[in-house]
Every structure is written in structure tokens, then in C-alpha cells.
């Protein structure tokens, strides 16, 4: 029995504007090939205009999330960030804070211990298409 | 000094409808019996209609959380999820995303390093009573 | 190669009222001196009226976050918590739940693997100035 830590980085080309990328299978492949039987998988989004979310990957739910955020943090409000910075993505910084950029999933029996309806979703809400980096790190025995 | 990882699963029968179950003592017992002196306890809710939350277990606060979510994501909105799926829990998928299904708590001196008012709460917001699985995993030295 | 776990606690004197304290450099120093090359840094806020957030430390964004929370969970609502407890910080318990008290950041190459615009921010939203404890724990190889 050896303790293992393995790290990788995914490069995702997203369309921004609340793009949802389901990375469950990629994370699962990495976990399965890591040699870790029991431990944790950390998924970390390296930007400030999106999030990592464990939830159900269903088109209706995704549209409902967008509707909710359009109520809480609409695209076209004159955010103070716009006056202080060079970009127009104030809404995305609000949504990223309400969601989170870091999620840890248990690894059991050499596999992700996700529930039946749980997927690992990267939400990218930048105002334009962008290349996004997500770190995945598996640690355990 | 040996590195340890120990995993268990709690089965909770909840009433749904924003049921709050305080699992602090169960998690604490597991941490204390794990043999880990310094490390981390991961608490992971295996569903998409609820959350794990570290917060104060006080009846007024719980009612205030419900009021807030009834503003943000009311029970009776015609969510798109309802037209695409066979269930009527669209609100719960919104709340689960705003909260989170995964929380990590430091273990120090063989015990949970929680603050005075912090409890580990499972919130289940399914539309009906349900059996819910929560994974608790302790890792460390 | 030795497995390491190192824990420290930061004491922060904050002004409450949505104080934002940027602890990135302090966490980075702790990570660099820990001897961990590859692993994870856990940042855990030990209170129920604030949060830890990985986001951009920019004055406009901070003001936008405050505006958003003043919409969702205004300071002056007659929260039920106020009738059941001895304090008047109901809004802060709502915001703490929407954010989170626990964030894990990957450590790669002996350093925090943060993105260009990511900082580690402690938000303290108590109604009065307060001393706040934040646990930082580094674990890995």
C-alpha cells in the first residue's frame, strides 16, 4: 500500500456565456488510472468567472440555473467592476462567488463515489469564448 | 506514525422539504475512532436536491434560510426541469447549486476543528421523504 | 519522499460589515515553508457569519458582491434569528451559507496553483469588529 498524489490539468475551450462542460468521464478516467483506491479527487477551476459544480446534467436544470442567475446577477447591470476594470463580466464574478471554484469528491474502490444523478460540471460564464484550465488532483492510498 | 484513510456512509431518512439534519456528533465520533490525529474530514452528500453546510444549528436561522430560498428559488415556479424530467423538484436543484454538496473540515488533535457555533448540517430539499446517503472520509496522520 | 501534514491558525482582526481580507500571501508563505511539493491547502473559516472565497481582489467586484447580498439578504430585515438569539446578524448567516467556509486549493511544484486573477479572500460579515480564526492546513508529498 503506497500513498499517491497525482495531478493533471484539463484544457477546455468553452463558449463562455454559461457554458456547461461535463467533465465527469475525464475525471473518472484520471481517477481510475491514478492507482488510488481510497482517497479524494479535487477539481479546481483556475479562473474567477466560472465554477465547478456537482449536479445533474439535464438541459432543463441548466436553463433554470441561468434563469435564476439572470434574476440575481443580470448580464446587463452597470456593475462597479466595469468602471474599475477593462472588462464587462461583473455578473460572472457574482455567480462564481455564489457557486465555488473548488470541489472535492471521495474516491472509494478506485472510482469516484458519485451519486446516481451527480455529474462534475464546469460552468464557464466569461463574456467571450475562452480557454479554461481545470486542475484535477487525486490523493490517497 | 501511519497515514490513514477511513471512509463510511451515513444513511439518513429525511422528510425532504428543507429537512435539516445535524450530523456533527456522528462525524465527530467517526473522526475520533479513525486514529487520525491531524488531517481532514470530507463530508459529501450523494444527491442533487440538497447540500452539506457548515453553519449554526438554530431554528431562527433555518427559517431565515428557507425564506431566502423561497425568494430566490420558490417551490411553485414552472421550472424547465419539470417539462424535461419526471419530477417537480426544480427549486431543489437551484438551491443545491447555491449551497454545495462537499465540505472539508480540518482535523486537529484527533478532533474536528470546528468553531464554537459551527455544526455540520445536511439539508435535504427533495419534494418527498427520502433516504439519503452521505459519505464521510477522514484522511491524515 | 515523506508525507506531510502541517496546520496553522491565522488570527484576523476584522471590521465586520463585509470586511474582505486578502490572505493569499500568508497562505502562500505557509505552503512554501511546509515542505509539501504536491498536495492540497485547505482554508477553513471557524465562524458562521462569514466565508472563505477564491476570487478576484478588486474594489469594484467587492462592491458588486455587497450590492448583490444587499438584494438577497439585506441588513435590516426582521430575521427570525433575531427573535430567537441575542444578536442581529441574521443577514450574515444567509450570506455565509451562500458562500462557504471551506476551500481547498491544489499545491503543485511547492506552491499554490492559483490562476492569474485568483486570490484567497476571507469575508467577515459580523455586525461588529471581531477577531476571526482561519485554519490553514497543507497535506501532501
Describe the SSE topology.
The structure is a homotrimer of 141-residue chains.
Chain A: E1 4-14, E2 19-22, H1 24-34, E3 39-45, E4 50-55, H2 59-72, H3 80-84, H4 90-98, E5 102-108, E6 111-112, E7 119-124, E8 130-140
Antiparallel strand pairs in A: 1-8, 2-7, 3-5, 3-8, 4-7, 5-6
Number of helices of chain A: 4
Summarize the helix and strand pattern of chain A as letters: EEHEEHHHEEEE
Main beta sheet strand tally, sense and closure of chain A: 5 strands, antiparallel
Name of the CATH first level of chain A: Mainly Beta
How far apart are the first and last residues' alpha carbons of chain A, in Å? 6 Å
Please provide a written account of the structure.
The structure is a homotrimer. In chain A, strand 5 (about 100-110) and strand 6 form a beta hairpin. Chain A starts with a strand and ends with a strand. Helices cover about 30% and strands about 40% of the residues of chain A. Chain A has four helices and eight strands; from the N terminus they run ββαββαααββββ. The first copy, chain A, has helices at about 25-35, 60-70, 80-85, 90-100, and strands at about 5-15, 20, 40-45, 50-55, 100-110, 110, 120-125, 130-140. Chain A is α+β, with helices and mostly antiparallel strands and about 140 residues long. The first copy, chain A, has a five-stranded antiparallel sheet with strand order 1-8-3-5-6, with helices on one face. In chain A, strands 2-7-4 form a three-stranded antiparallel sheet. Chain A has one domain: YjbQ-like (Jelly Rolls), CATH 2.60.120. Chains A and B meet through strand 4, helix 2 and strand 5 of A and helix 3, helix 4 and strand 8 of B.
Amino acid at each position: 500500500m503506497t500513498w499517491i498524489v497525482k495531478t493533471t490539468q484539463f484544457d477546455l475551450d468553452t463558449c463562455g456565456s454559461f457554458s456547461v462542460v461535463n467533465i465527469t468521464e475525464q475525471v473518472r478516467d484520471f481517477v481510475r488510472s491514478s492507482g488510488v483506491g481510497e482517497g479524494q479527487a479535487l477539481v479546481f477551476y483556475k479562473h474567477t468567472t466560472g465554477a465547478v459544480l456537482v449536479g445533474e446534467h439535464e438541459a432543463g436544470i441548466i436553463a433554470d440555473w441561468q434563469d435564476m442567475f439572470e434574476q440575481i446577477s443580470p448580464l446587463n447591470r452597470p456593475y462597479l467592476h466595469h468602471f474599475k476594470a477593462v472588462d464587462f463580466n461583473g455578473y460572472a464574478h457574482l455567480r462564481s462567488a455564489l457557486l465555488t471554484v473548488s470541489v472535492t469528491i471521495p474516491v472509494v474502490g478506485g472510482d469516484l463515489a458519485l451519486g446516481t444523478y451527480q455529474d462534475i460540471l464546469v460552468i464557464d460564464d466569461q463574456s467571450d469564448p475562452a480557454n479554461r484550465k481545470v486542475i484535477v488532483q487525486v490523493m490517497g492510498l
